[in-house]
Amino acid sequence: MRLKVVHGLVHALAYLHRDCSLPIVHRDVSVNNILLESDFEPRLSDFGTAKLLNPDSSNWTTVAGSYGYMAPELAYTMRVTEKCDVYSFGVVALEVMMGKHPGELISSLPSLPEGKELLLKETLDQRLPTPAGQLAEEVVFIVKVALACISSNPSSRPSMRFVAQEISAQSQACIPQPFETITIGMLNGFQE
After folding, report:
1. Less crowded by CB within 10 Å, the N or C end of the chain?
2. Is the C-alpha dihedral spanning 162, 163, 169, 170 positive or negative?
3. How many CB atoms lie within 10 A of CB 150?
4. Residue 14 or residue 50, greater confidence
5. Buried b vs exposed e over 125-146: b needs ≥16 C-beta within 10 Å?
6. Is the dihedral angle over the CA atoms 146, 92, 34, 138 positive or is it negative?
7. CA distance 192 to 109
8. Which residues are within 8 A (CB) of 156 and not within 5 positions of it... i.e. 6 or more apart?
9. In this structure, are residues 57 and 23 in contact, taking their beta carbons and an 8 Å threshold?
10. Nearest to 185 by CA among 126, 98, 115, 84
């Protein structure tokens, strides 16, 4: 069910960013703005801070969004782009997989001591059984994508369209080693 929520959010953001006549940036993607239908189909809500991206404009803005979900570059550039939503998506995807806000994980990523690897299975919600088979592959892929989405460099973040295409194509590679041995460090490096 958690994967269904993440997949639905990916497709919603890809639609807003690429399939509308003018791209729309939501600017407040957070778990509080995702509504779930009875079958756990997600619906992105609260477009009060959404912004149409005008290709003939610089798209400068005031800060909007929820603390802990906003892209770091908004604080110093005040320029809104689709990559701001991509960052927020990464935070939400990690939160859905972890069962809690990933703030500690995000802040520790750049400073993890060498040799002190954080196991993926330890970061996932411990209330759920360890995934296996195809489910494990999908979880690994989603976490890998989410980590790419929270890159501090906006140009390194994948587009939501690319992520949606990868999910739809189910082109995730098989896990090269047992799930229990996969570390967060191994999952850094997903690129468009």
Report:
1. N
2. positive
3. 21
4. 14
5. eeeeeebeeeebbbbbbbbbbb
6. positive
7. 21
8. 148, 191
9. no
10. 115
Residue 156 gets which letter from DSSP?
A: G
To which H or E segment does residue 188 belong? none
**Nearest C-alpha neighbor of 99 from the set 123, 120, 129, 67:** 123
DSSP string, 15-67: IIIIISSS-EE-S--SGGGEEE-TT--EEE---TT-EEPPTTS--B----S-T
Residue type, 72: P
Among the options 19, 28, 39, 85, which is catalytic? 28
46: annotated active-site residue: no
Residue 79 backbone phi and psi in degrees, to 5: -105, 125
Nearest to 50 by CA among 92, 22, 9: 22
Distance CA 23, CA 82 (A): 8
Q: 70-119, pLDDT tens digit by residue?
A: 888 877 777 788 999 999 999 999 999 999 999 999 988 877 655 568 89
